[in-house]
Design brief:
It is built from 10 helices and 10 strands.
């Protein structure tokens, strides 16, 4: 019996020497382009930011079941907060796929509609990002709030489309910004956004579609190459066949397509959202939560594979 034990231990030691445990890389994080492990609770709020007025918004958060005012899921708390915004003439309800996806991956997301949807002033959207962060923090401190106590009040992200993307850049580059990572989608190139981009110090990922007829790639690339400092972590990616309306909910996108808004798409709307979500989710998971397993999706082999396969037409990143 003793000889068998000694033999077993000896074999185990040899196996550990030849095949050390740390040499086996185990990646068990949820893929960023698929729904995450959390159910999604939601409820409506509003906040006021002078001089613009009242912003209506929906807060979505990890919950133990899906639904309105669903009980929160505390298993992964505290969760970073993310503010989401649509663009010109848009409302939060027609870009809700983004906060839903992020909430399912363990974020408390607030998606707002600005008071003046037809305004060309990106600062209105920038104020919405600041106000959205403050609203999340105040809701986290109220004992009767659905998100009471589950928000990481020190960690925030921002993501916006078009005018919302320009506002995201402007809010991220503000002196008093609390945004720790940003993802502008086809951002509007206002003077205030361009000026603020030069002050950005946090990781920022820029996305655009090659077929975008409203904010084409040549209008987005300068944010990466000329405006956001090279001392900051930054990334630029162009989705092959994607257009502007492909970043919004499919029902609204098809409605806009029927009216001839934007250039024709080269890929299905669902595929554009999948690609987009892969990159912005991995960006937040890596930079807000410190989950290094997502490095491959934004800087490593997974990203390179998408470029080689033609899923992306352009991919550039800067890691100082």
């Amino acid at each position: 019996m003793k000889k068998r034990i000694i033999l077993f231990v000896s074999v185990a030691i040899v196996l550990l020497i030849v095949f050390p445990i740390h040499a086996v890389e185990v990646c068990n994080v949820p893929p960023p382009d698929e729904p995450g492990p959390y159910h999604i609770g939601h409820y409506r709020v509003c906040f006021t930011v002078p001089p613009y007025g009242r912003y209506w918004a929906t807060i979505r958060y990890p919950a133990i079941r899906d639904g309105w005012f669903a009980p929160k899921d505390v298993s992964g708390a505290p969760y970073p907060g993310i503010v989401v915004a649509n663009g010109f003439a848009g409302s939060e309800w027609n870009i809700k796929w983004i906060p839903k996806h992020l909430a399912s991956h363990g974020y408390v997301a607030i998606c707002f509609t600005p008071p003046h949807k037809l305004s060309g002033d990106t600062t209105q959207w920038a104020y919405g990002f600041h106000g959205g962060i403050e609203k999340l923090k105040s809701q986290n401190s109220l004992w009767f709030s659905p998100i009471y106590g589950i928000l990481d009040i020190e960690t925030f992200g921002g993501i916006g489309l078009s005018m919302g993307g320009g506002g995201c850049i402007e809010a991220t580059g503000a002196n008093d910004s609390e945004i720790d990572a940003a993802v502008p989608l086809a951002p509007a190139g206002s003077d205030s956004a361009k000026e603020a981009a030069q002050n950005i110090t946090v990781p920022t990922q820029l996305q655009v579609g090659t077929n975008d007829g409203m904010v084409p790639p040549e209008h987005v690339l300068p944010f990466y190459s000329d405006l956001i400092p090279d001392t900051s972590v930054k990334e630029y990616l162009s989705i092959t066949g994607g257009n502007h309306i492909g970043f919004i909910d499919e029902f609204v996108a098809k409605f806009a397509e029927w009216f001839g808004i934007d250039n024709p798409r080269g890929i299905e709307f669902e595929e554009q959202r999948r690609i987009s979500s892969k990159y912005f989710t991995a960006w937040f998971q890596y930079h807000l939560k410190g989950l290094t397993e997502y490095f491959t999706y934004i800087f490593g082999d997974e990203a390179q594979n998408d470029l080689d396969a033609g899923i992306l037409s352009d991919l550039r990143f800067n890691i100082p």
